[in-house]
Request: fold
Amino acid sequence: MKVALLEVSHWHVPLYLDALEAPGIEVVAVSDAQQAKGEAIAARFGCKLYSSAYELLEREKVDFAFVFGRHSEMPALAEAVIARNIPFALEKPCGVNMSQVTRLRTLTEEANLYCAVPLIFRMSELLGSLGEAEGRIPSDFNYMSFRFVAGPPSRYEASGSGWAVNPVYSGGGSTINLATHFIDFFRLLTGKEVARVSAVMNARTHRGAVEDYSLVTMQTEDGVIGLIETGYSFPSTADEQREFSFTFSSDRMYAKSGPDRIEFRDRNQLSAGTRSRRLQLETDIYYPLFVKRVLAESQTGAKPIASLRDAELMMQVMDAAYASAQQGGVLVHLEPIS
Reply:
């Protein structure tokens, strides 16, 4: 299977590379307009390096493309791939607003073309653990909360992706970059769409152009609440890069994170105390699994684990969160998307 990687200076690209060295996969070309990582990655795979993704697409015949790049450039890159009828994976958030993602979703549906988005909590041990706790994923959640606070914005500069802290290119800070996963996870776990959103944000830690702290509240029509706290304020080191914690409350159980585990308490059997299960909370491990899965899905005709429709609905919440924060945290009501 001949694969191309578009705009490989994105900080997530290194998480994909080991999986692309598997038998049956040939990385035939990479592009890197930022000229930060392309040369090393092209050398690793012994493939052609292009400074333009569009030139790559004109000259190379590929079976699948992994599309990265600046958030603001993702829609144009994706459209170029769609125009050539190449199945692809598009790094989240797929654009800087919902309307851009809606257009991509429409184009892929019209072309009947495979596109997957790495909303990787759909592949996580956390999802599996919640299912194992009751033999299925609970459907009676009352609320859930997530805290995912990553290292400082300087890490993007160090990785060759300094554009991530420029809102013109990124669309924002920790919210559009980190909260994406948890908006999608909330939708997946509740099986319901978000009806109301409010948010507050600030940049008081690093005083930069994008928010480095964000608190987003979501509600379904029937009142299930989701709380997402993200930031760039964790003083990260190689041995501890971020804070990640969570809580889930349903009619029957209460679950919370420990340092390396998930802990459950059954409301109907309090005498049983707390049950715990070891859990891998390092999310980077899911990207190689994503690579293997999407390449298999695209070959078999299966539906993607997360689609542009999922990204579109996630970005509807994202747009509302930024609109709310700009108005001091007002409640924003969402209209159903047809």
In short: The two ends are 35 Å apart (CA to CA). Residues 195 and 335 are 7 Å apart (CA to CA).
